[in-house]
Specification:
This protein is of the alpha/beta class. It has one domain: 4-Layer Sandwich (Metallo-beta-lactamase, Chain A). It contains 9 helices and 13 strands. Bound molecules: zinc ion (2 copies). The site of one zinc ion (ZN) has 5 residues, from loops.
Length: 258
């Protein structure tokens, strides 16, 4: 099971998951042209994309969805609790729904409920014969059952949106700061670190940690990265040796993790 972040951040998010039989995208912010550009860097064309799984209706996750439906006719999936809001926002007519779990080609797709100010937001886990990939983004608090959900995942994309001090000291309006910090906002570096610590303590399968949805105003890739590296080092584990840590960026594709 392979994972690549095509781009990640408050302007747009799109991740590529690849098994033997399927290539699926999670979310499609920005534009179809941008997705094609990043796929082309990997010598892939959009024709190889088997489906798109959407987390929630916010623009940075769905803005390319109408183009995908119109020009590419690719199957779109969303959680049954969030599909209506995504359809209303994007005017897409052909959204398939997923509940707790679904079999798609050789992948088992599982969902987990996130805490976010969307109609409904879910995280995804994709599993094939070789292993699992987990994606948890846009959640203000750690989802219930998160450790069990991510436990089999060798690669995880976890939101590491903001540094709390940068956010509070920055120039965002007070209300927006409160929204980001709230239970229905976004995960801070500290919260991302808490999950990773629990996954390692519980001897979960995690080997590749990709930090995503990193704010360009209230965070720095280095801060997010070293926050996790330090937590691992305190547990006697070293980045690049025991585990890999990577920050998914807005303007650059991540390495592909297997
Ligand atoms: Zn959102
Ligand atoms: Zn978002």
């Amino acid at each position: 099971m392979k994972f690549t972040s095509l781009y990640s951040g408050s302007k747009g998010n799109c991740y590529l998951i690849q098994s033997k039989e399927a290539n699926v995208l999670v979310d499609c912010g920005l534009s179809l042209a941008m997705i094609k550009e990043r796929l082309a860097e990997m010598h892939l064309s959009f024709k190889c994309i088997s489906a798109v799984f959407v987390t929630h209706e916010h623009t940075d996750h769905v803005s390319a969805l109408p183009q995908l439906e119109l020009f590419e006719k690719v199957p779109i999936f969303a959680h049954e609790k969030g599909a209506k809001a995504i359809a209303e926002k994007t005017m897409c007519k052909s959204i398939n729904t997923i509940g707790a779990s679904l079999q798609f080609k050789d992948m088992t797709v599982d969902t987990i409920s996130c805490s976010h100010d969307a109609s409904f937001c879910c995280g995804y886990r994709f599993t094939d014969q070789t292993g699992s990939v987990g994606i948890i983004a846009d959640t203000g608090s750690l989802p219930v059952g998160i450790v069990e959900f991510l436990s089999p995942c060798k690669t995880i994309l976890i939101e590491s949106n903001h540094d709390e001090d940068m956010l509070m000291g920055g120039n965002y309006p007070y209300k927006l700061k409160q929204r980001i910090l709230s239970e229905k906002g976004h995960l801070s570096n500290k919260q991302a670190g808490q999950i990773i610590k629990r996954l390692v303590e519980n001897k979960c399968a995690v080997k590749n940690i990709v930090l995503g949805h990193v704010s360009q105003n209230n965070n720095m890739p280095e801060l997010a990265f070293y926050n996790v590296v330090k937590i691992l080092e305190n547990m006697g584990l070293y980045e690049g040796k025991d585990l890999n840590v990577c920050v998914a960026l807005q303007d650059k594709r991540s390495p592909t993790f297997e």
